[in-house]
Amino acid sequence: MIVNPFNIILITGGLGFIGSNFIRYILSTEKGVKIINLDSMTYAGNPKNLAEIEHEYPGRYTFIKGDICDQKSVEKIFQENVPDAVINFAAESHVDRSIEDPNVFIKTNVLGTATLLNTARKCWKDFFNNKRFLQVSTDEVYGTLPEDKPEIKFTETTPLNPHSPYSASKTSADLIAKSFFDTFGFPVLITRCSNNYGPYQFPEKLIPLMISKAMNNEKLPVYGDGLNVRDWLYVEDHCSAILTVLKKGKTGEVYNIGGNCEIQNIEIVKMILDSLNKPHSLINYVQDRLGHDRRYAIDATKIKNELGWEPAYCFGEKIKDTIQWYVENQNWVSSIIDGSYQK
Ligand code: NAD
Ligand code: DAU
């Protein structure tokens, strides 16, 4: 079944990295759709990510500052706008921060998701025809893979085995979402994606952090031996996959999304240094992340075979564009580093 068109979509966490890329993507590709962006503007929510959007798409974009954990605010949005679909990007998303302070991860990622699900169910009054709730999840719910068995990848039936407080909170959210489908027939879709890269990523994550440090001739902190592997996907490919699942996915199902692009961290760091003509002597091996997952790799056969989605971009090309974007948008990075983006 193809559900289309959606008139109003409630996006949560739309001032973050993937949410802001998604809002730009959907407004440019789906002509009739209106977006409500609910974001509490944590440190990761940056209004500059969507600075011109209201002018570019007049009447099609509304921003509401609010917390997905706040049931009253969420109810009010549902009553005033009656969205046809919800896409939940809002989350605490950085593994290192979850090791420092797990509680906010449990609050936003678990309670926040539960609040959204429950409010949507009540406001849609159990009349779910053509309604959809897409939970944006992560490959980290599956845990880690052996590096000496490249043929093994995460499939949608791989047992859930998260290791960090971040991934455990995302796993809990997935299970609550699934329980709403199993119990109420609530129209949930779950996507589990691998590591994204591209413009507007907060410079605490590997790629923008290393670009920013290299540009300033600072040391690049590589955790452990640098041989951990991630499966990289350009953010616009993630956006197109989410839209495909929203329109064509079967409710109650999980869809893995990946770039079929496994790379060791140290290779990425060297690529960035080479591309910026900086010496490898800037590499600084530091203490490993606690509980550091060794390898992630997504088997995206299901979304390809059932929904016809495949990544459009290759890493070699898009990492160059991404580095160039950060070079050309140093003001965006420096406003985060000096804190002025929050004023
Ligand atoms: P991000 O940290 O860049 O953005 C998160 C956004 O959520 C911010 O705008 C923040 O202000 C908002 N937010 C946080 N708590 C909120 C709350 N309680 N109420 C409302 N808004 C709140 O994250 P991202 O990298 O864009 O990731 C988006 C989603 O995609 C997350 O759910 C993450 O788990 C998932 N994901 C990310 C990746 C990746 O590589 N970045 C890969 C797979 C899945
Ligand atoms: O796999 C999907 C996940 O990818 C998402 O669910 C998360 O929201 C997203 O943050 C990302 O998690 P990672 O932990 O994989 O991303 P991060 O950029 O933090 O780290 C990537 C790899 O680089 C990881 O092996 C740790 C390493 N690293 C990271 C940082 C910040 C370093 O070696 N040095 C660093 O300074």
Describe the protein in words.
With 343 residues, the protein is an alpha/beta fold. The chain has a single domain, classed as NAD(P)-binding Rossmann-like Domain (Rossmann fold, 3-Layer(aba) Sandwich), CATH 3.40.50. Helices cover 41% and strands 17% of the residues. It contains twelve helices and twelve strands. A seven-stranded parallel sheet has the order 3-2-1-4-5-6-10, sandwiched between helices. The longest helix has 21 residues. Nicotinamide-adenine-dinucleotide binds next to helix 1, strand 2, helix 5, strand 5 and strand 7.
Give the key terms.
343 residues, alpha/beta, Rossmann fold, seven-stranded parallel beta sheet, 12 helices, 41% helix, 17% strand, globular, binds nicotinamide-adenine-dinucleotide, binds 2'deoxy-thymidine-5'-diphospho-alpha-D-glucose
